[in-house]
Each structure stands twice: as C-alpha cells, then as structure tokens.
Amino acid sequence: MEEVALKQWLAPWPKISAQLSNLLVGLKRRQITGSYETSRKTTELVRAILGTVRWTHARQLMDNIRLLGRVLIKAIPQELAIGNVIRRVLFIIREEYLNAMKTLSSQTLSQPSLGTILTPGTEADYTTPIKELKQSIMEGVSELVDEIENLHVSIAEQAMEYIHAKYAPSPSVAVVANGGLIAESGIQNIALAAKKFCIDVLNPVNDYVPPEFVTIFITNTGAYQPSYIYRLLTEYYSPQDYQLA
C-alpha cells in the first residue's frame, strides 16, 4: 500500500510524519479544501521534506515526491491542484539538476557532457550525486510557496484592467491544455449566455467549458488567451510528469 510505503520512508523524521498525517486527515475529512489551501499545505509539506529528509540523488527524490503526490491525490481525487503542485516540484528538481550538471560538465572534463547526459529522445537518469543540488531545489520550492501565497494579490491587481463582469463566480477548478476550463457546475451555461449577449464573465460539482467560450485567463504571472495555455504548461511542467505513476 502506497500510504504505508510513504509513512515508512518518513518514519525516521517524526515531525515530518506528523505533518503528513495531519494533512492526510484534513484532506480525507474535507477540513482542507479548495485549490489555494490544498496547494499551500502541499508545498509546505514538500518544503519541510526537502529541508529534513535525506536523499542521495535527484532520481530517488523524484520517485518519493511522486509517491507523495499519489498518496495525497488519493485522499481527495477531485482536488486537481495537488497533482499540479507535485508536477511543479518535479519540474524544479529536473531543472535544477540539469543546470547543476551543465555547471559540472563545464568545470571538469571527467564529468560527462550534457550531450551525453541528455540526448534527443532520451531523459537524464538523475542519479549523479550533486552536493549543491539540495539548496538550489529548496530555493526553487520556497519561491513556489511564495508564489502560491501571493497569487491572489497578483491576480487582483490585474483584474480591473481586463474584467468588467456582471457575473463573477468562484475561480476555475482547473485549466486544461487546449484552453478550456473546468469550473463549478452551471458555468458552461453562463458562458454560453455571455457569448451570445456579449456579457463579460469571470470564469472561475463541475462543468467543462470549451476554449471558444473563454476570452482570457488572468493568472498571477499575467493574462493569457486560451490558445497560449498549451505553451504555458511547458514552462511549468515536464511531459515526463504528466502521469505520476
């Protein structure tokens, strides 16, 4: 059972184990809900794990972070933000590892070049131990924590420039790669009416709204048309991590 395996991995660190148990209980009992709270709690746990738990190389760390993601997602499958946070963390680990390998390969000829580490159509094995990797990953995840904590401020600052809404439900549950979105039940009918009668709508259980009914997405990093969402995904997630299994 994956939850048992995860708890066994974290058993030598009682504070981290307790933090995991509290999060799982909160998710299962629906005491922690919504994209913001689940994202914040997940990143806080990941940051605590990175700062406390010992790991040998990036591959080992990524395997365990994937395990963590699967366990948390199982606790509340409908909350899609958890999986996305885990994928962002995996992206950070990959990026920092490859950057570190570039630095190492430029410093000594005894290290393999990046071309031999990662050639077209292949993936790095992420098993080379790198002394400074933990710190750089920690910094990246801390930036992610700050981003999540401040995203409402960033979005609110931009909202008045783009939105003159007559109807403003809660935010989207998820945005999909084609520029559509998943939102609270009923939003698709509202979007249809808005398009027909030229009414501005702030898009936030759930409906799928096709991209042709979405004018713009306002995020903490800027405003984007639906056609740009697919490109945006490549800037935050690795295709290798779309499936966490």
From TrEMBL:
Primary localisation category: cytoplasm
Q: What Gene Ontology terms describe where this protein resides (cellular component)?
A: cytosol; eukaryotic translation initiation factor 2B complex
- Taxonomically, the superkingdom here is Eukaryota
Q: Where's it found, cell-wise? A: Cytoplasm, Cytosol
Q: Which residues form the signal peptide?
A: none
**Which Pfam families does the record match to this protein?**
IF-2B
Which keywords fit this entry according to its UniProt record?
Cytoplasm, Initiation factor, Protein biosynthesis
Q: Which SUPFAM superfamilies match?
A: NagB/RpiA/CoA transferase-like
Annotated GO MF terms = guanyl-nucleotide exchange factor activity; translation initiation factor activity
Q: Which residues form a coiled coil?
A: none
- Family stated for the protein in its record: Belongs to the eIF-2B alpha/beta/delta subunits family.
Cite the record's note on assembly: Component of the translation initiation factor 2B (eIF2B) complex which is a heterodecamer of two sets of five different subunits: alpha, beta, gamma, delta and epsilon. Subunits alpha, beta and delta comprise a regulatory subcomplex and subunits epsilon and gamma comprise a catalytic subcomplex. Within the complex, the hexameric regulatory complex resides at the center, with the two heterodimeric catalytic subcomplexes bound on opposite sides.
The protein in question is named Translation initiation factor eIF2B subunit beta
> Highest lineage ranks of the organism?
Eukaryota, Sar, Stramenopiles, Oomycota, Saprolegniomycetes
